[in-house]
Amino acid sequence: MAKQRRDDNNAVLRGLPSVDELLRTARAEEMIRSSGRAHVTNLARLAIAGTRADALAGNISGELTRAAERALVNIAESESLQGLRRVINATGVIIHTNLGRAPMSADARDSLLQAAAATNLEYGLETGKRGRRGSRVEQLLVGLTGAEDAIVVNNCAAAAFFVLKVFGSGGEVIISRGELVEIGGDFRVPDVLEQSGAALREVGTTNRTKVVDYERAIGKRTKLLLRVHPSNYRIVGYTATPGVAELATLAKKHKLILFEDIGSGALVDLRKYGLTDEPVVSHSIKAGADIVAFSGDKLLGGPQAGIIAGRAELIGTLRKHPLNRALRVDKLALSALEATLDAYERGTALEDVPVLVQLSLSAAEIKRRAEALVKKLGRTSLNIGIIAGESAVGGGAAPNVHPKTFLIAITHKTLATDEIERSLRLSDPPVIARIDGGRVLIDLRTLEPRDEQYVITALKKFSKK
Ligand SMILES: *Cc1c(COP(=O)(O)O)cnc(C)c1O
Known about the structure:
By secondary structure, the chain is an alpha/beta fold. Helices cover 44% and strands 16% of the residues. The strands form four sheets. Strands 3-9-8-7-6-4-5 form a seven-stranded mixed sheet, sandwiched between helices.
């Protein structure tokens, strides 16, 4: 029995190439020229193992060398899709978490390239001596937020943890039950508090919390009042939460620190774009928050970073703390943040920072661009229409704001929508669209006009023969 099976297997596997044989095929030689022999050898081993298994399972009819060659190409392709690369965000979600959050300004992109070389990161050009990392960014932040001082760490999660650890650990932190939120999977306020070594003291109810609730909970161990912007979540209806100013008065009376985790971090008032309940950082500082923390890559529109701004004495304590070194931001993020903040400082953020540009685009303008794109595309086998729809802010900000837009809506006589979507996604660069109501939808709000050519290229794959 065992011998019979072995003989059958040998017959099926006759013609399975060795690694060396596979490496001598035309496709493999081409790949070796671009990615090197050692790497392609590893892929060839996987390709042969896969082909062997397929052959034994009876899934291959033709020649095994051809099948192994095809397997090698497929493995190389799927590997290349796993690497980090730019994509075209045609989803209409402005701060798309899966697509790297805020797209950066042209100036920020330039400064990233510059900073990739040697920089004066911790070097004073005037003095020729050691300088402080981030000092210019800190100055800009002071100017833009009205805070006495500021520092930058890796992200807002790190910022919140840092503040709670340094000022809350060993004591109690009071927070409203309506603000014990989870922000995107792995940032849960109660968990961050636990990690910081501060005891959580929850007050009020899910929908209503008043200043007296905080006041009653204040005791000997209380160190901090924490206010968290609910970000991706809204409680509507019969609700109440004290404003920053009321809590600031209470904190002052009891010599406590008021810390606000703002998250989304709007540096300018975005009410005219419908973002009515996104706190503006300078307003919180003005209202009396001792420390605020916010992200660099949400509404601010810069790189991943966590910004902590507030009273000089408190920021000074953080700056000197050993954790600051562990959480610090790298030179690339710092340079991109500086370029982004420069636009705010110059007063050109609304024209230069893509998040703000995209928020402010009117539906009429998007419709005009969509019509022009469809016209340029010419005849394809696709059915294309332009329909009214909604974009989204994303990034855990303004979940109830849906900017009006126009969408390029695509269907096909025979192809399923997910096949069309997949074909766009596997274009170069990948075009990320969404599917809704049996159509593939492209929202031009989230891509720059000069990137529309890539959408055209991806759609031309369906051109009429
Ligand atoms: C997004 C957010 C965070 C986490 O910020 P990251 O920059 O992603 O680390 C923390 N707190 C609030 C309120 C947020 O909205």
